[in-house]
């Protein structure tokens, strides 16, 4: 627990909430000049015992329950960055899930500019694999540059994908469909994911692979065969990351290597060892 940072975060967010916005009056007792909601008012609004919030803000609550952290975060209007910070300062770990149900559906518009500046194929999708942004090299992968609205649905059930994604049944589906199954396990009520799974289960080949899904839940670091619509047969390496402000959204970059070109596996990237300090030098 980082008590100082926790106190600063909560005081700062609490000061932004006007009591009047919740039908409360601003405390006028002598000595109380801090803006925003008082600690007692937060307990009142959250229907908690007196001093519950005060213990949290002061660091006197060693293992605050998840529901308390969620209620406080929502009342104080926290975003996903604040939510992560709250967990790290209060419990020394990352939260088990995003704060807001729709987190991961929207990314900053500057991502399109970033994608346009990349030479490799690249796209950003939301938490349900709906395509949010892509660049021209990515569009060129598809016949007629017909880019799908949802990359998971395309990979899982679109007949065209089984021509573009070479050896789909052995090299792609066993790695793609477990991602879908894991995403649905995390969000069983997600209508987009439920719809894709229904289509998968209606496809005998995809259904068999889906039902035997492994523990593979992310694509980062893999290399897979493709038949590029404009560049012909080759391989793509899959580099996957997450926009920090959009939990479960994905940035995927796909460097392409034409078939027949020798493959040189890049070395893993590691930080350089720290140089010895002068104090320890002989």
Structure description:
The radius of gyration is 25 Å and the shape is elongated. The longest helix has 19 residues, at 168-186. The relative contact order is 0.10. The mean pLDDT is 89. A four-stranded antiparallel β-sheet has the order 2-1-6-5. The protein is of the alpha+beta class. The protein contains twelve helices and seven strands. Helix 10 (168-186) packs across helix 12. A hairpin with an 8-residue loop joins strand 5 and strand 6.
Tertiary shape: elongated
What order do the strands of the largest sheet run in, or round the barrel if closed? 2-1-6-5
Mean pLDDT: 89
Regions with pLDDT < 50 over 5+ consecutive residues?
A: none
Classify the beta-strand content into a percent band: 5-15%
Report the biggest beta sheet as strand number plus sense, adding barrel if it closes: 4 strands, antiparallel
The beta-strand count equals: 7
**Count of alpha/pi helices:** 12
- Content-based structural category: alpha+beta
Query: Radius of gyration in whole Å, from Cα?
Result: 25 Å
Query: Which series of helices and strands comes N to C?
Result: HHHHHHEEHHHHHHEEEEE
Assembly state (oligomeric): single chain
End-to-end Cα distance, whole Å, is 39 Å
Query: What fraction, in percent, of the residue positions are helical?
Result: 25-40%
């Amino acid at each position: 627990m980082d008590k100082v940072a926790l106190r600063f975060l909560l005081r700062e967010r609490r000061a932004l909430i006007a009591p009047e916005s919740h039908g409360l009056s601003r405390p006028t007792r002598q000595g109380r000049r801090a803006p925003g909601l008082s600690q007692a008012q937060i307990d009142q609004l959250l229907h908690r015992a007196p001093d519950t919030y005060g213990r949290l803000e002061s660091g006197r609550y060693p293992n605050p329950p998840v529901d308390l952290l969620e209620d406080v975060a929502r009342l104080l209007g926290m975003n996903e960055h604040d939510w992560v910070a709250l967990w790290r300062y209060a419990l020394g770990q990352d939260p088990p899930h995003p704060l807001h149900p729709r987190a991961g559906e929207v990314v900053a518009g500057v991502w399109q500019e970033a994608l346009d500046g990349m030479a490799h194929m690249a796209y950003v999708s939301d938490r349900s694999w709906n395509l949010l942004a892509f660049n021209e090299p990515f569009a060129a992968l598809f016949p007629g540059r017909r880019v799908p609205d949802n990359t998971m649905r395309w990979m899982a059930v679109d007949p065209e994908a089984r021509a573009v994604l070479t050896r789909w049944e052995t090299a792609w589906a066993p790695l793609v469909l477990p991602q879908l199954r894991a995403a649905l396990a995390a969000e069983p009520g997600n209508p987009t994911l439920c719809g894709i799974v229904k289509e998968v289960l209606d496809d005998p080949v995809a259904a068999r692979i889906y039902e035997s899904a492994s523990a593979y839940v992310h694509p980062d670091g893999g290399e897979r065969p493709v038949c590029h619509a404009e560049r012909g047969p080759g391989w793509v390496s899959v580099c996957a990351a997450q926009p920090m402000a959009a939990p479960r959204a994905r940035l995927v970059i796909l460097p392409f290597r034409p078939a027949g070109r020798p493959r040189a596996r890049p070395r893993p990237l590691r930080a350089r060892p720290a140089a010895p300090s002068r104090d320890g030098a002989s």
